[in-house]
Amino acid sequence: MTALYQDVALRLRRAISDGTYPPGSQLPSEHELAEWFGVARSTIRHALAMLGEDGVVASHRGARRTVLAVPRLQNFGELRSFSLWARSIGAEPSGRVELLERRAATEVQARELGLSADDPVIYVVRVRLLDGKPVMIERTAYVERAGLLLSFVDLERESISERLEEHGIVFAHAEHTIDAVNATPDDARLLAIEPGLALLRERRRATDPRGQALEWSEDRYVGDAVAFTIRNSIALSPLVRDRAATPETAAASTTNSGN
Amino acid sequence: MTALYQDVALRLRRAISDGTYPPGSQLPSEHELAEWFGVARSTIRHALAMLGEDGVVASHRGARRTVLAVPRLQNFGELRSFSLWARSIGAEPSGRVELLERRAATEVQARELGLSADDPVIYVVRVRLLDGKPVMIERTAYVERAGLLLSFVDLERESISERLEEHGIVFAHAEHTIDAVNATPDDARLLAIEPGLALLRERRRATDPRGQALEWSEDRYVGDAVAFTIRNSIALSPLVRDRAATPETAAASTTNSGN
DNA sequence: AGCAGTAGCTTGTACCTACAAGTGGGCCGC
DNA sequence: GCGGCCCACTTGTAGGTACAAGCTACTGCT
Fold first, then answer.
1. Where are the coiled-coil regions (chains A, B) (predicted)?
2. pLDDT tens-digit map of B195-204
3. Which nucleotide is nearest to B26 (CA to C1')?
4. What is the pLDDT along chain A (259 residues), one digit of tens a residue?
């Protein structure tokens, strides 16, 4: 079912996690690993490449691979889904729907979702809670195809993305832009915090496997509740530093209705 | 000099950038590309895998690859180096050193850099400016090996990382943790902003190719000047959502001296 | 003892074959 | 006309060979 190289990668991950190859130590050579696992060197290399992408091992021509860090288990689903993430850290997620309506896309939404002006979107504002404490406001515009399925979802308790996947809507790629904003009076009310507190803002565009946009979201996290972590390296750097939020998106996102 | 697959990847990137294969369109098959470029299919696959890691193309068994987005040129160096990044967006970077001293590592610094308690670090506080406007405070602890070379660097004008690489100190991996904090009075004074303004905080641990820690830094960006962007996908997700800054690091980083 | 040169090991690159798994369009029958 | 089936095409997986490039440890010379 799963590919051989994925199985090998998983077993290597486990070997690193359980201390067989602690951070700072060197891995056996590709040749040795291939012999032990009974696979070709190319398969071992494929598996090790995955660990390299996750920043778990470093490699250099001529020298054996070095273990950089213990692998983190978080996957794409946990990143996109608040519910999945919450449960993975042992907290109880819940949600409170502030707004749910079908309406014409704003200019920003149309551009980000690849729609024409005034095409309809499903707009949802939810406050997300961890163990009953509000930690995030989620203002999401779904394309009609995905959004219409929301009527089948119990938004207060269920994970939207989990249910959508059951209906054949699969989130496969995402682009996240992260900056910091002060809480507006509206934000403060919804999150039960002081106005002006620093919030971590994540604007996210998620697409299906074909690259068709499915949602555009503006999430605001309470600063002392959540952080994002990225690993990168010379070989692989998915993180980009940008200049300034553009004025129109900054202005458009200061109210509930303008996202 | 450069590897074949890197050359192919570059040419494909350019073909996407210049509109030959616009976002949403489909790429030629691996077979066709291999023939056109005069290389093996495995080489084409290697190149396409790189584009996939950058979120530029999506691929699925059975169907041709889809172009997701125009590639961004930013590389690892531009992410680590404020100077390189600034010049790449056409702005003039500069810096103002507020503090530079050799002193014993704090508990946090020792843990992050893999040092023993009271091992010395070189601690630098710099305000970074874009076209003369302060946008970031950088509070960095260097391990002695790297930090001692700082005496050769003109900190007001030059890029630390560029000069260190000339001396054989190479930054190869980094782990970034991003959250939001309100500007302390100290931050506000250094950045010439109002206290309490939302700042984007990036804590960064960078290592050499072997995984040996070189620096631990806490950078604070003015929220409306800089944002970070990440692309990820089901296959590759270097981004991780974390719970809360730990109390000790949050407390330790509220003053100049405590980083 | 100390140093330089080298031989062997290790990873990187490039090529190849073969087959599996999944897509999509065209053809055929109804 | 329309729906279902099938086949050609496309990507994914797994294996292999050969050689290049770079590191390390050892040998042997001074």
1. none
2. 989 998 988 8
3. D10
4. 588 999 999 999 999 988 899 888 899 999 999 999 999 999 999 999 988 887 788 888 888 998 887 776 555 555 556 776 777 667 777 888 888 888 888 888 888 887 877 788 889 899 988 888 898 999 999 888 776 666 655 555 556 666 666 566 677 777 788 888 999 999 999 999 999 899 989 888 888 777 778 889 999 998 777 767 666 655 444 445 444 433 333 333 333 333 3
Locate tokens 């273990």: which residue?
A67
Q: Residue B84, SS3?
A: helix
The two structure tokens encoding residue A60: 């250099």
Q: Is the CB of B44 less than 7 A from some atom of nucleic acid strand D?
A: no
Question: Nearest nucleotide by C1' from B44 CA?
Answer: C14
Residue nearest to nucleotide D9 (CA to C1'): B62
Residues in chain B, how many? 259
| Element at A159 (helix H, strand E) | none
Between CA B40 and C1' D18 the distance (Å) reads 15
Q: How close B240 comes to chain A (CA, Å)?
A: 5
A198 touches strand D (CB under 7 A): no
| Amino acid found at A220 | R
CA atoms within 13 A on the CB side of A8: 23
What gap in Å lies between CA B184 and CA B190, rounded to an integer? 10
Which residue of A239, A246, A248 is the best one to mutate when testing the B interface, meaning the one whose CB has the most B CBs within 10 A? A239
Going by the DSSP 8-state scheme, the letter that residue A58 receives in this structure is E
Query: How far is the C-alpha of B98 from the C-alpha of B137, rounded, in Å?
Result: 10
- Residue closest to B23 by CA, chosen among A112, A244, A242: A112
Three-state DSSP class for residue B213: strand
What are the structure tokens assigned to B211, written together? Answer: 């995984």
Å between A172 CA and nearest CA of chain B: 5
Contact B174 A89 (CB under 8 A): no
DSSP B256: G
Segment (H or E) for A206 = strand A198-207
Pick the closest to residue A239 from B204, B47, B162 (CA basis): B204
Residue length of chain A: 259
Contacts of A77 (CB under 8 A, 6+ apart): A84, A161, B234
Q: Is A244–B225 a contact, with Cβ atoms under 8 angstroms apart?
A: yes
Strands (E), chain A: 57-60, 63-67, 93-104, 120-130, 133-143, 173-182, 198-207, 213-222, 226-233, 239-243
The per-residue pLDDT for range B62-95, each reduced to its tens digit, is 889 988 887 765 555 555 567 767 776 677 778 8
Instruction: Please tell me the distance from the alpha carbon of residue A226 to that of residue A129, in angstroms, as a whole number.
Output: 12
Query: Which residues in window 61-80 of A are less than 7 A from strand D by Cβ?
Result: 61-63
